[in-house]
Amino acid sequence: xxxxxxxxxxxxxLAAEDAMGVLARETRARLVNVSTSGCLLxxxxxxxxxxxxxxxxxxxxxxxxxxxxxxxxxxxxxxSPAWQIGVEFLWTSRPGSWSLRGxxxxxxxxxxxxxxxxxxxxxGPN
Length: 126
Known about the structure:
The chain is of the alpha+beta class. It has a single domain (22-112), classed as predicted glycosyltransferase like domains (Thrombin, subunit H), CATH 2.40.10. The protein is 21% helix and 33% strand. Strands 1-2-5-4-3 form a five-stranded antiparallel β-sheet. A hairpin with a 3-residue loop joins strand 1 (30-34) and strand 2 (38-43). The termini are far apart.
């Protein structure tokens, strides 16, 4: 393809009124907590409040994802840099079997149908 053709295509894209670009980056995080409305993550990377993206979580053989928006970012004091990042699920599409919020709902239903034995001991004044 000639340089003139490439230049003409570039100029056409740049002149378009509906041209949009997306900058994406992958950030590793640890899932601390998840609910049907959002998640709490911990990461070495700060994410600005209002940042949107797709959160993907792999559990065993299953992979789940949802569109999210960062609602808070709190620095964790300690030896290494860490951030606790709160994200809310966005309703960009109807949640399917692959969605994180769907996974949470299924897990809650499965747990509710099981008998769960809970025991604890405490040490202290009686």
